[in-house]
Amino acid sequence: MNYPLIFSIAKTHLVSRFKQSAVAALGVTFGIGTFITMIGFMTGLNDLLDGLVLNRTPHVHLYNEIKISEKQPIDFITNPAEELSIVRSVQPKFNQIRIHNALPILDFLNKDKRVKGAIPQIKVQVFYKAGAVNLNGILNGIEPLQEDRLFNIGDYVIEGNVQLLKNTPSGIILGAGVADKLKLSLGDRIYISSPNGALFQLKIVGIYQSGLAEVDDIQSYVNVKMAQRIMGQSESYITDINVKLHDLALSVDMASQLSQQFNVSAIDINAANAQFDTGTSIRNIITYAVSITLLIVAGFGIYNILNMLIYEKMNDIAILKATGFSGKDVQYIFITQAMVIGIIGGSLGLIVGFLLSVLIDNTPFKTEAVPTLETFPVNFDPVYYIIGIIFALIATFLAGYLPSRKAKNIDPVEIIRGQ
Amino acid sequence: MNKNIVLKAENINKYFRVPTLFHVLKDISFEIEKGEFVSIMGKSGCGKSTLLYILSTMDTDYNGALFLDGEDLSHKSADQLAFIRNQHIGFIFQFHYLLQEFTVLENVMLPAKKLGIKSLEEIEHDAIEKLRLLGIADQAKKLSMRISGGQKQRVAIARALINKPSIIMGDEPTGNLDSKNSEIVFSILKELSEEEKLSLLVVTHDIDFAKKTNRIIEMEDGRIIS
């Protein structure tokens, strides 16, 4: 097989009918360009939405759940295999809210190789006080820098920052809803009352906005030590441990293992956010379905143009065959044309898709839900560019294959005698 | 087998099956020697073109045996036959079958490039030489759709010669040309046969043309009658 020769014949055919070749290539460009743009935009949005929840959700969350004892006192003296015991009106067992031995557990977790980081959190029920008004609230005692490193809390602090909180022992990052209701801003002071009635004055070093009004109206952040002080508890008082893993997939196993090992409740991220996976995969399916449809349309365009070309080039095909080109040579000439259209159209499509993505990426887009977002989110993952070009090549190959097979089987005698 | 025999046909029979069974060629046998200029004559529909396409290996639907340079061609695959056509058979058609979008030179070079034995420079050199032999070297860089009918036919002859074939076959090579161009084309063919010892087999209607060849094979109703 003489590829340079076949390629040069294919090239001459394409160049001498530049307009039609260009239209066919543009079909592919359009298909691939749209695919790249759509998938970049869609997955960018997906990542953002997932990130909204997943970034700030611990992979494994350890806490003490208030629950009913699995083994009721009667079960200690009866044999469930032989006797049936019925207990009515079962009450939950009194349980400490704090995690028992929390500091050693934290040490243990931070030494585990699978763990990216494990940090304590202290949840305190408080009232925000303003004159006669008491607003219900929850304070989260956190280690500001660690919390930011692992759960990106900094992304949601719209005024002030987490470093300030770290530097200010009696600082608070106030929920945007609370700040709004109490007409408070950065630098102001706020009084809160603890569950046992003590009053504390805190300095506002940041405003926090998650985008969920229910959260922003209630939740605020203080330092771990401050939270412990508000509770009047020692350093070992820790109500929650949030764990971030290197590999998200391990969270289910980790959760059940930790729950058994330390006798605490452990919830994994999948159980906490099952619906997000579903949403993501459905959006992906839609994107792929639309893109594949576009490519199929482009493929039909190529198929049509090559079919016409072959009818016009009957004479050429007959001459080539008469002068010693085999059916396969002729077939390769036309497949080569399809593939050249595919490669050029597809590459242009990648460029067009990239440029459109850049355009979208720079389009201003402000939303309360995501304070850090300035423009539309776009994903520039090279994987989609690779998928795009492979799509283009497969579609144009199939579109070229059928007409080229016809060209292969043309009987030159019929053409030559037909004139 | 005699070394001097270039092409040999033995008992070739051919049927058309569509629209009805029709016996086109009946027991055709003949030989062509090296350097011979043979014409096939006959009325329309006597099967002479059909015979030519069988001899050219493009039509493989026949019974009988066909030898080129002593090699049996009747049971070769389509790809093998394409290779043999490329190397050993030159073709000239009634209509000017050139690739329209290619230059004259590219058209002439094409079969040699396909054969791929010589380097590109050698092929180009050969092609220009052939064009010069046929008196159209000055047209080499023109697109083949931009030259006259007589010139096109000469380009076709140059293309047929490029791989130094054993035999050149023509289907009414002058059928579509005026008398002056016919004359030129004939004299070129005659010269090739005499000087280069090239074997030629030409199907023609033109009795004047045929009379000037070495031998006339006359056909009627699918048989050779003389």
TrEMBL record, chain A:
UniProt keyword annotation of Membrane present: yes
Domain ABC3 transporter permease C-terminal: 289-412
Membrane topology: Multi-pass membrane protein
Family affiliation: Belongs to the ABC-4 integral membrane protein family. LolC/E subfamily.
Protein's recorded name: FtsX-like permease family protein
Protein's UniProt keywords contain Transmembrane helix: yes
Domain MacB-like periplasmic core: 21-257
Species, as recorded: Acidiluteibacter ferrifornacis
GO biological process, one term: lipoprotein localization to outer membrane
From TrEMBL, chain B:
Protein family according to the UniProt entry: Belongs to the ABC transporter superfamily. Macrolide exporter (TC 3.A.1.122) family.
Taxonomy, superkingdom: Bacteria
Organism: Acidiluteibacter ferrifornacis
GO molecular function, one term: ATP binding
Lineage, top ranks: Bacteria, Pseudomonadati, Bacteroidota, Flavobacteriia, Flavobacteriales
UniProt cross-references to InterPro entries, sorted A to Z: AAA+_ATPase (IPR003593), ABC_transporter-like_ATP-bd (IPR003439), ABC_transporter-like_CS (IPR017871), ABC_transpr_LolD-like (IPR015854), MacB-like_ATP-bd (IPR017911), P-loop_NTPase (IPR027417)
Protein name as it appears in the record: ATP-binding cassette domain-containing protein
PROSITE patterns, A to Z: ABC_TRANSPORTER_1, ABC_TRANSPORTER_2
GO CC entries: membrane protein complex; plasma membrane
Keywords: ATP-binding, Nucleotide-binding, Transport
PANTHER family, per the entry: ABC TRANSPORTER ABCH.1 (PTHR24220:SF86), IMPORT ATP-BINDING PROTEIN (PTHR24220)
Record's keyword annotation contains Acetylation: no
Residue intervals of the ABC transporter domain: 7-225
